[in-house]
């Protein structure tokens, strides 16, 4: 098995051109192009009904597409579905495990269906159950498992055949934060081992944490594609948020920091100053306040996160304004800052979206 | 890895899985076998005396004992029909749990999933038949069959189990929910009633009699009864075999077509 993996590993990515799918007169996919490099995580991000699951179902040979071409692990989707099935693993939205069988039996079932010999099947089962910390529960029926354990078992079953391309369709939907983090670690390990992963998610943090590249899918089309940083750069939004005790402080701060770009929110007693969030930018703001003896109650650094990107790109209707994490309409705040020098600076983007510094 | 598929090996893997299911979830097997046994007891003890006098039993005789011999073969057919419901339920459960999707993204023989279900169901049906037969013998069923006749009756019941399991699998795949799946094959279990299982079609009004004479369970009932209780079979044997072949082919083709389309949404 290792030998065959080596010979075609170079082609173990995913490409798709113009994938189309319609159910009746409802178009689900309207010309989707994808290019997933081998050994990387590619995330399809989108709201419910955007076509994420349909894309996975088509690429994993579950349903037929109406138009376009695709290659998975070097095999043509239309011509060699069985060759693709030998190279892929799929873990869907709802754990596809056999509830009446034990974890171990579920694993051995897959090993048998992959025609591994008995010893190899047992070895692989023990190894994966160990790695996924399911050894203790190995002899319990899967129906008695928690959501997180079922999902882990599902992924473990997917890995029995050492797939080179793995489709993960919302692998952490419905999991608690701890289980989610465990899944993320397992997924990172897989990619470190050279596996290609197509991940769909509606959690922006998940795409940000895991994906090398992200495509935002909306209404059956890809509306944006790039790395997390590239996507964030497309949306202006970095700012320092100052909160004051009284209107007077707010007024004097606004006049001292009298940049045409700063925005006052009198009812909230806050001032938003566009910034890249760097230490020097924060320091210069603090220096100005200090020298003017203005007391600010709190300071928050907001860097654009994928939430901004997601909401901006998948906003439905033409006038939908992107909003920032505080629910204020970002378009009005940053309307004049699109050309702000820091907005184009990739180093300005910080993975941690919000840091609060209390004085 | 070669491109060869292993239809037999895969089907045996699936069969083992389904037998484990039957072993761990025996209430399904029990549920489907209870209905025919209750029918048997009801018709023998509640109505047997009256029906034994009221209908003209082929092969002669009258009274409860003669009626029990008339009734039991039809009850065995009902047992097969009732057991087949389990296939629809288990196939549909697989689909709603998403494991069929997992199987369909693996390079395994396309038919093996369903073949495993069908064979598993046939084994369950044999157990159900032995149980029903035991109860029938206990309440006075006295078959007068030779070994060859027993074998022929058994073979016919197995063929029926095979045909109905495929049909039931197709119904399970075409159902949206397990509830629908458990109801879809229900008419199959009632068909023996509308034939010659309980009373002779001669005693029915014209329209129903016409249906009773031409529906598949009547020639089957007549053949099994002829083999076990010694009544006249005539050409019913061939008609029964033709029906079984037809239902099997229909069930198989329908199942395979539904399996290709079966995607959990």
Q: How would you concisely characterize the structure shown here?
A:
The complex is a heterodimer of chains A (359) and B (265). Chain A is built from 13 helices and 15 strands.
Describe this structure in words.
- The complex is a heterodimer of chains A (359) and B (265).
- Chain A is of the alpha/beta class.
- Chain A contains 13 helices and 15 strands.
- Chain A has two domains: 2-226, P-loop containing nucleotide triphosphate hydrolases (Rossmann fold); 233-358.
- Chain A has helices spanning 2-8, 52-59, 81-87, 103-113, 118-131, 147-159, 177-192, 204-210, 228-234, 247-256, 279-291, 306-313, 330-334, and strands at residues 14-23, 26-36, 41-45, 67-72, 75-76, 88-91, 165-169, 196-201, 213-218, 221-226, 239-244, 263-265, 270-274, 296-302, 354-358.
- Chain A has a six-stranded mixed sheet, sandwiched between helices.
- The radius of gyration of chain A is 24 Å and the shape is elongated.
- In chain B, α2 (26-54) runs antiparallel to α3, α3 (63-97) packs antiparallel against α5 (112-138) and α3 runs parallel beside α6 (147-173).
- The model of chain B has no long low-confidence stretch (mean pLDDT 89).
- The radius of gyration of chain B is 19 Å and the shape is elongated.
- Chain B has one domain.
- Chain B is mostly helical and 265 residues long.
- The chains are: A alpha/beta (359), B mainly alpha (265).
- Chain A binds chain B through residues 1, 4, 57, 60-63, 82-83, 85-86, 88-90, 92, 94-101, 105, 109-110, 112-115, 141, 157, 161, and chain B through 1, 3, 5-6, 9-10, 13, 17, 20-21, 24-25, 97-99, 101-108, 263-264.
- Chain B: One of its GO terms (biological process) is response to antibiotic.
- Chain B: It is a multi-pass membrane protein.
- Chain B: InterPro entries: ABC2_TM, ABC2_TM_bact-type, ABC_2_transport, Nod_factor_ABC_transporter.
- Chain B: This is Transport permease protein.
